[in-house]
Amino acid sequence: EEALKNREAELERIFRAAPIGIGLVVDRLFTKINTSVMEMTGYASEELLDRNSRMIYPDEAEYDRVGAEKSVQFGKDGMGKLETGWRSKNGELLDVLVSSAPLSPGAPSAGDTFIAVDITERNKTLAALRKSEEQFRTLYENAQEGILQHTRNGRYLNDKPPLAYMSGYASADELLDDVAHRAHPPPR
Length: 188
Description:
Layout: H1 2-17, E1 21-26, E2 29-33, H2 35-41, H3 45-48, H4 60-77, E3 80-87, E4 93-102, E5 112-118, H5 120-142, E6 148-150, E7 156-159, H6 161-166, H7 172-183
Antiparallel strand pairs: 1-2, 1-5, 3-4, 4-5, 6-7
InterPro entries: PAS, PAS-like_dom_sf
Protein name: Diguanylate cyclase
Domain PAS: 33-75
């Protein structure tokens, strides 16, 4: 009995200290949440506990999608993991990665635990990177000048066709083959 109490106290400390959202939902009602869930959403515990999790989703369609997807994943893998959106108390839309598992695989009504990570900044960074890559690709593909890309150690990656033609080669491949051959001639 003492070991069980110690184990429960240890789990409670982990639950409270975790820098990611952790909680328990039963029939899609929040029954337990940690401080990180409150910090992510801006809601106090009394505003979330015993309330339907629908309140943090941006709309009914996303709430339904998450429920349906979790149900499929639970049936297939015994757990679920998906990206979704949550709306904080101040109206800010968050990108969230949620991983969850049923408390009792044979009894879905027992509820499930979830872990939630705010991935909003990560997604913004990825979107900015994609946009930057797209802008570079557009500039590169539409450039009228010759362009040659290479690594820091001098290995040629590719060139923009005008460079090949400006240099008297029939194609970019021919130029790259010649440059590579000159940089690393075959042994004699």
